[in-house]
Specification:
The structure is a single chain. By secondary structure, the protein is an alpha/beta fold. The chain folds into 2 domains: 137 residues, 3-Layer(aba) Sandwich (D-Maltodextrin-Binding Protein, domain 2), CATH 3.40.190.10; 124 residues, D-Maltodextrin-Binding Protein, domain 2. 31% of the residues lie in helices and 20% in strands. The chain contains 9 helices and 11 strands. Strands 1, 2, 3, 4, 5, 6, 7, 8, 9, 10 and 11 form an 11-stranded mixed sheet that branches. The protein is elongated, with a radius of gyration of 28 Å. The N terminus is likely disordered. This is Phosphate ABC transporter substrate-binding protein.
Length: 299
């Protein structure tokens, strides 16, 4: 009888423990890792340091004091980053003798795929990384800002600025004559950039709110990827758009103020970030070049 009582007691204890475990409230899940990691020395917004099976790596990019001769950085970027990349390439190579920065122009997808494959070191792009790209171990650092400038030919008689509303109306063919803006009578010739240019998508997003430039008698669509042809097409009656970095020192065009602001203004409307994307962990060449680029951003 004593043995039976002991067995019943053990069963009750087991059932009680199991019940407590079964009905115990679920523990809250661990907090997810943030999608943005900010390094120090210097501070730089890093986008895409988590996700998928990759382990986030917090890296710093101090300005390099020396870079070994023979160091090579392979930097590919979309068309509208070429001016900025070339400026950094020349100054980096001049400061650190014996180094080489190989630059090339590619589409966004080409640059990202080449980076994932290990064929380049840095991809220069305008948009943030997708989740799938982050899951490949890619990290994007905000290196700079570039602006979209609204431009006319230097001999265009229109000498005023524009409001954002007027820009929309011009590129939607709702304002078609310079006299509607307070200028001399004459048709406004709108030069729309080729869809092959990355600036085309940026303009649609930042300026037109996603809308397309319509087909209209006063609108000319550039068919190729030739910046010189676009600048020549402006003549004395045309208007178009371009990356500010590409036309800031261009003597054949004049940049128009938008709502009283020039592209250099901090609160200028049409601007976007430039990201340098690398695959974590950064190799020494990448750390040196990005550290140098950040130093130029925050001297």
């Amino acid at each position: 009888m004593k043995n039976l009582t002991g067995a019943i007691t053990l069963v009750l204890i087991s059932v009680s423990a199991t019940s407590c475990s079964y009905f115990a409230p679920a523990q809250p899940p661990d907090n997810p890792q943030p999608e943005t990691v900010t390094p120090s020395l210097p501070t730089a917004p890093i986008v895409g340091a988590s996700g998928g099976t990759q382990t986030p790596t917090i890296e710093t990019f101090p300005p390099p004091t020396t870079v070994p001769a023979g160091t090579k950085v392979r930097l590919y970027g979309v068309n509208t980053t070429s001016e900025f990349n070339l400026m950094l390439k020349n100054s980096f190579e001049n400061q650190f003798k014996g180094t080489e920065v190989e630059t090339n122009i590619s589409t966004y997808d080409q640059a990202i795929l080449a980076l994932i494959a290990g064929n380049i070191d840095i991809a220069a792009v305008w948009r943030p990384l997708t989740t799938a790209e982050k899951n490949q171990g890619l990290i994007a650092i905000n290196i700079s800002q570039d602006q979209i400038a609204i431009i006319v030919g230097k001999d265009n008689p229109y000498s005023q600025g524009l409001t954002h509303a007027q820009v929309l109306q011009i590129f939607q063919s709702e304002i078609t004559d310079w006299s509607q803006l307070g200028g001399a009578t004459g048709t406004i010739k709108v030069i729309n950039r080729s869809s092959l240019k990355n600036i085309y998508d940026a303009f649609r997003e930042l300026v037109l709110g996603g809308s397309y430039v319509p087909n209209a008698p006063n609108i000319t669509d550039m068919l190729g990827d030739d910046d010189t042809a676009m600048l020549e097409a402006l003549n004395t009656d045309g208007i178009s758009y371009a990356p500010y970095s590409a036309v800031a020192n261009q003597e054949t065009v004049r940049i128009l103020a938008i709502d009283g602001l020039m592209p250099q203004a901090v609160n200028y409307h049409y601007q976007r970030p430039l990201y340098y994307v690398y695959k974590s962990p950064a190799n020494p060449a990448v750390k040196a070049f990005i550290g140098y680029a950040l130093q130029q951003k925050n001297p």
